[in-house]
Automatic annotation (TrEMBL):
The gene is trpF. The lineage of its organism: Bacteria, Pseudomonadati, Pseudomonadota, Alphaproteobacteria, Sphingomonadales. Residues 6-207 form the N-(5'phosphoribosyl) anthranilate isomerase (PRAI) domain. Belongs to the TrpF family. Pfam families: PRAI (PF00697). Its EC number is 5.3.1.24. It comes from Sphingomonas sanxanigenens DSM 19645 = NX02. Pathway: Amino-acid biosynthesis; L-tryptophan biosynthesis; L-tryptophan from chorismate: step 3/5. InterPro entries: Aldolase_TIM (IPR013785), PRAI_dom (IPR001240), RibuloseP-bd_barrel (IPR011060), TrpF_fam (IPR044643). This is N-(5'-phosphoribosyl)anthranilate isomerase. NCBIfam families: PRK01222.1-1.
C-alpha cells in the first residue's frame, strides 16, 4: 500500500473515472446533491461504477439523505460519505441499514469545530475534515476552500480520518506534512471548470501523491 492514498471526488464521466482508476486512486467519489455541478443520479453512478475494479472503493457523497436515496445508491458503492447535519444516531442508523462503511464530514474553520468529531465515535468509521463553507453557501463542500491545516496539529483524532478542502497538486505535500494525513480527498483541485474533471490533472495529482 502507498504511504498516502487519494480519493478523487465528484466524478461524472467515464473518462474521469478511468483516469482516477488507472493512475492509482484508492477511492472514487460520486456526488448525489442536485445543487452541485458534480451531481449524478443513481442510474448514472451505477453505469460509471460498473467497470471499477474491486480494489478501488466507490464512495457515495450524500447530504442528509433519506432512506429512499440510500436504498438506491447503497448497492453500488462501498462507502457512504455524509456531508449534512447528520447526528451520530443517524450516522449509526445509516451504517446499520446499508451495511457499509460510513464517513462523516466535519466542517472546520476554527479549532472549536473539531470538537464535533468525537461524538461520531462508534457511529462512523472515518472522519473527513473539510473547510466550512461561507454562511449561505449552496454547497457543503467542493468549493475549493481550505481551512488552516495547522488546526489538526497535535489533535487527538477519535477515528481514522481524511483531509479535504482546497487541496491541489501545488499544496498537497504541505497538506500532508502539516497534518499527517494518510488519505486526501480532492475534487475542484483536478478540474478545469466547476464539475468538469481534467484527466491530465487527475493523472498529475495521483503521480504527485505516489511520490510522497
Amino acid at each position: 500500500m502507498p504511504r498516502i492514498s487519494a480519493k478523487i471526488c465528484g466524478l461524472s464521466t467515464p473518462d474521469s473515472v478511468g483516469a482516477a482508476v488507472r493512475h492509482g486512486a484508492s477511492h472514487i467519489g460520486f456526488v448525489f446533491f442536485p445543487k452541485s455541478p458534480r451531481h449524478v443520479t443513481a442510474e448514472q453512478m451505477q453505469a460509471l461504477a460498473a467497470g471499477v475494479p474491486g480494489h478501488v472503493a466507490k464512495v457515495a457523497v450524500l447530504v442528509d439523505p433519506d432512506d429512499e436515496l440510500l436504498a438506491a445508491v447503497a448497492p453500488a458503492v462501498d462507502v457512504v460519505q455524509l456531508h449534512g447535519a447528520e447526528t451520530a444516531e443517524r450516522v449509526a442508523a445509516i451504517g446499520h441499514a446499508t451495511g457499509l462503511e460510513v464517513w462523516k464530514a466535519i466542517s472546520v474553520r476554527t479549532r472549536a469545530d473539531l470538537t464535533a468529531a468525537p461524538s461520531y465515535r462508534g457511529a462512523a468509521q472515518r472522519i473527513l475534515y473539510d473547510a466550512k463553507p461561507p454562511v449561505g453557501a449552496d454547497l457543503p463542500g467542493g468549493l475549493g476552500l481550505r481551512f488552516d491545516w495547522a488546526l489538526l496539529t497535535d489533535f487527538g483524532h477519535p477515528l481514522p480520518w481524511a483531509l479535504s478542502g482546497g487541496i491541489d497538486i501545488a499544496n498537497v505535500a504541505r497538506a500532508v506534512t502539516t497534518t499527517g494525513a494518510s488519505l486526501v480527498d480532492i475534487s475542484s483541485g483536478v478540474e478545469s471548470a466547476p464539475g468538469v474533471k481534467d484527466v491530465d490533472k487527475i493523472a498529475a495529482f495521483l503521480k504527485a501523491i505516489a511520490s510522497l
